[in-house]
Structure formats: C-alpha cells, structure tokens
Design brief:
It is built from 6 helices and no strands. By secondary structure, it is mostly helical.
Length: about 180
C-alpha cells in the first residue's frame, strides 16, 4: 500500500473512531444514574460533536453534528429530529465561526457549548412548558434546564482537550507518511 493509501486508511480510521466514541458517549449518556447530580445529567454527545466541529471544520462537523443529533433524539423527550437538525446547523456554524472569527481555545469551546445547550434549553422550555402554561413551569427552567446546560458546559473542556490530542496525533501520523 502506498503513502496515499495509508493516508486514506488513517483518515478513515479517525472517522470510524469518532463514530465509535459518539456511540459510546450516547450509551453513557443514556445510562440511568451515570454522572447524575441531584437528577441532573449532562449531555455527553453534544460537547463531543462540538469539539469535532471545532477541529475538523464545518463539513465534517456538520456530518458528526447530525449523527450526534440522531443519537440525542433517540433518548430525548422532544420530537425526533429536533437535535439532529439543530446540531447539524450549529456544528456547521461552529466550524465556520472558528475558522473565520474566533480563536480556537478552551474558552471559545465552552462558549459554543453553553450557547447551544442554553438555546436548546430555552426552546425546549418555551415549546414544551411555557406555551402550555403549566403552573410552576419556571421551576423546570431554573432547576433542570439551566443546571443541565451549566453541567454540560463544565464537561466541555474535557472533550475539547481530548479531541485536540486525538486530532494532533492523527495529524502527526498522517504527516509522517
């Protein structure tokens, strides 16, 4: 196998590894009681796909955003496709914004993650609680959706640093060929 074939194999291996990691993260995210603090569980797939979009760019980020969204939709209480469409679009935007407007660092990653989870939490609150005028629905926002967004944001540096190490290692391996 020539150098070009080895590069393709490494690139395919990297993308397969991303897929396996996302499925594993979804399984952990869906595991009852795993990382739960007072009944609040963070998203694990969302920061992972955002980290992928940060390092891989808008096209690969969009594809893995859609995959991560499909995984999140399987366990969500929202309509199917909500996370798929929004993560697809958001990861595309993150890839583009980090290329042209923002620095690629931990702070930007946390801001991107908090932005997505915060916006989705507000949309979920508005369309599933506020519009139906449930009494005390503000408590869902204050004691469930906001803590989930903050907990997920706290997890983002781990995913960002892990993706950076993985991305750099694969770049080194591809560069050696």
């Amino acid at each position: 196998m020539g150098p070009r074939g080895r590069k393709r194999m490494l690139t395919a291996g990297k993308y397969l590894l991303y897929f396996v990691l996302l499925v594993l993260l979804y399984v952990l995210q869906a595991t009852p009681g795993f990382l739960a603090v007072r009944g609040i569980k963070p998203f694990l797939v969302v920061p992972a796909v955002i980290a992928i979009a940060i390092y891989e760019g808008e096209f690969i980020g969009a594809l893995y955003g859609a995959l991560g969204g499909m995984l999140c939709d399987m366990g969500a209480s929202t309509f199917y496709g909500f996370y798929t469409i929004t993560l697809f679009l958001y990861c595309t935007g993150v890839g583009l914004v980090l290329i042209y407007l923002m620095k690629n660092n931990v702070q930007s990653a946390v801001i991107c993650c908090l932005g997505y989870v915060g916006i989705m939490g507000l949309i979920e609150y508005i369309f599933y609680y506020l519009l139906y005028a449930y009494p005390g629905s503000w408590q869902v926002l204050l004691f469930f959706l906001l803590p989930r967004a903050l907990f997920t944001g706290l997890m983002m540096p781990l995913f960002y640093l892990g993706e950076r190490a993985l991305f750099q290692r694969f770049e080194e391996l591809i560069g050696e060929i």
